[in-house]
Batch of 3 targets.
Target 1
Amino acid sequence: MPRTGGFRGAARRWATSIARGAVLILLSALIAAQPGAAAGVPPPDADPFYAAPADLADHPDGAVLASRPIALFGLSLPVSAWQVQYRTNDSADRPVAGMATVMVPNLPWLGPGPRPLLSYQVAEDSLGVRCAPSFALRGGWQGGVNTLIDSPFMAAALLRGWAVVTSDYEGPDSRFLDGVNSGRGVLDGIRAARAFGQGAVGPASPLGAYGYSGGAFATLWAAELQPEYAPDVRFAGLSAGGVPADWTAVARGVQGTIQAGLAVLIVHAIARNDPSAGIVELLNDRGRAMLVTDADACGEDLVLKYGGVRVDDFAAVPDLLSHPVFRAATDAQELGASAPLDPMYLYHSTTDDVIPVAGFTGLVDRYCALGADLSFRYSALPGHNPAAIGEVSGAFDFLSDRFAGQPVAPGCHTR
């Protein structure tokens, strides 16, 4: 049986959840009270700061290309923040200009050793750059819903005294569901934050990574790619929850529900990311029109637009999700081909209504068979979003212990 913890632990988690909710309500109220905060903030595709420099290819991976201070959310908050442009590479090995937001609390770090750096992956889940975390964190809210939802959790990390780097890991082409692209964006964003050096963050800073749902996908792809792509980036610990595994099961599970737009997002991304894969040829007229009309949509846009639809509403073949061409494309984006080298804490609701728990179990089994050092938790909190809120304190506690140098028992263990 999965362990759910005692009353005291549950009470602490729910108290933490209430506090996070209060932060979210307060932040929303501040933004509503300052309607001019987002005024004059151009989206990334209209902001010259995001443009790649002509000599991009001459810079090493993770090099800082440009930086500017920002007011976080366009508000006066006790956090120093910067946008940092850096060199990274997409999944086709082309150099691209990435963007990260580096945040440091205006508090001295009182813990032992250097201030820790947390790489926090927002569930970007987008097809357009207006949905990128950096735009929302600067105060642009046309498409920043997921960043707003994650803001209490980033605030919780900052309140622990940690520096935080949040990368637009989908890159300037907003490549949702491209694991290599996302993982490289995360790793080079970390390199850039350490090179930038604000808040006494540097190569000696203990490093952690966290993400939930789509953010977990990017976090774990970074961890799997790290040994080969970024051997200089070693994590003290990794935490992730609501982990997307078995993408066809995710799409099959949400189709026909109010979350059906997520299935549309998966189909759109798989078709767009590799036009030569043959996915477009499997779509009907409605499906091909969707690729055009929703080319820069955020995930939340699609959820609002496509509630109740089924994937085969867009397909020219029966049961698109089982078609060998579609399965080959999604299988290439599954986690678990290799095990991260560093200690992990993963968790998932047993009744997740967005990402079926069976996929999580399969990923845990793969990691354990590959020799990972993994603590995993099956949460009794009912559903995807409640588990995101109620379990984050345990994820951060795991990272805090790793930052403090506490060892983990090798192998796989339930918590």
Note: Residues 20 and 360 are 26 Å apart (CA to CA).
Target 2
Amino acid sequence: MQRKRVLPLATLLLCAPALAGTVPAAAAPRAATTPGPAGPLRILLTNDDGYNAPGIRLAFARLTAAGYDVTIVAPLTNQSGAGTKTTNTPSVTVRHPEPKVWAVDGTPGDSVAFGLSEVFEGRAPDLVVSGTNFGPNVAGLATHSGTVGGAVAGLDAGVPAIALSTGGVTAPDPVTTVNAMGPTLDFAVKLIDRLRSRARSGPLLPKGIGLNVNHPVVGADGKGTAAGVAATFQDPQPLLKADFTDAGDGTWKVGVKVDLRTPARGGDVEAVSAGKIAVSPMNADWNAGPADSVLTGALIAGLRP
């Protein structure tokens, strides 16, 4: 899927000036911003790793410290790889283990749907933030990501959304990846503040547009500063390759390995591989761009039922 590549030029122009020259810094003080929505920015925070995962808990602490009004509505259990799936069941188990935290026994999409319908009933949040994820969501990983799926659920409902992920293009190391979540969230605060400043009293992002943010792991301990920020698109490569081995009893063992190909120029894989933060605009539907629509018209020209 290449939907990020074909978004309107205006969207890319929105992202590039907002991020140009932005340099992540650890624990940088929050800059004053032009007032946006009345009162603290209200954020629905979700993920696909589960409501008690390190990434979402660190995000809750950092975003709250930045002055935002944050409420976690996230899956009860790990839902990595759930994509945009929503559960079709007559009931769902929901726990409310502590103030500002809701755990939904379902997917990220289920969690966001419950949050918008019940937790934020009558007044939608200003922003859905999904993550930060343990590991990257670039290239084909983004297509199947529950983290991205949580953000898409927000976009489907008309709420601006950002997906946050931390990791390089190799298998994530637990210690360095968790350490890199600090710089990821410091950048997220800067990004959200920038969006709020630009939006003034309006929506944080254009209608139907979200951002998929991937922060690399920098330095031996993961706490290093990224080399820069790049406005990117989703690289079309799958990134992972599945392998199946016949166990001889009617079952097959499943293996997965990284299959990194030459990164597309200007794509998210190229940026993250270079130690940069990749920020890709995304939408919530599966429409291709105008050129692909013209091509499709040519392919079916003259066909009859």
Note: The two ends are 28 Å apart (CA to CA).
Target 3
Amino acid sequence: MNAIDVTGLAKSVGDSRQLFSGLNLAVRPGELVALLGESGVGKSTLLNILAGLDDADAGEVRIAGTALGPLDEGARTRLRREKIGFVFQAFHILPYLTLAQNVALPLALIAPDTATATARAGEMLEAVGLGDRGQGYARDLSGGELQRVAIARALVHRPALILADEPTGNLDPETATRVLALFAQAARAGGAAAIMVTHSAATAQVADRVLTLTHAGLVGGA
């Protein structure tokens, strides 16, 4: 089963401006896809549709075999919590929680098993090289370290799909390279499919496939 299957997706904004149409995409577990495209073509909108945060005008999205279209908002929220991980450019690490608590948060939202969540968060922090920093806070970390925490949080609940929107946009080139390599390694090791929006061809090189979003859908690597 693919982690995500997208068929015939179309989206317009306003009365007539078409972002894209005829969009088809299938991503396998463990596969990393980079998504390029001109500004305004709808890359972030596409991620929102794939996450069930926005609705397409036409087409179908299936996450791990579950169609998003028929789900009500409560069911979509549960699916996001259980099946999707998010990595954002702005990190979104909560400053009043420890790093371990930040990483454990997705598990805490799924089930109130504190011991399991704490242990799993520790494992993920260790995997991203921050195993000794779990009781620290965001104020003590660099941008690259914060993004590593965000990666650990995105993967802690073993999602089927990771959606990343410009995940290294705020990092210097050397730090971005290290973080991207870690992101790719961690996603593949966890068997998660990943779709990464980026404006950088250099960033896209870490991916298994590089696709370009156009008004006519996706073009690029098979």
Note: The radius of gyration is 17 Å.
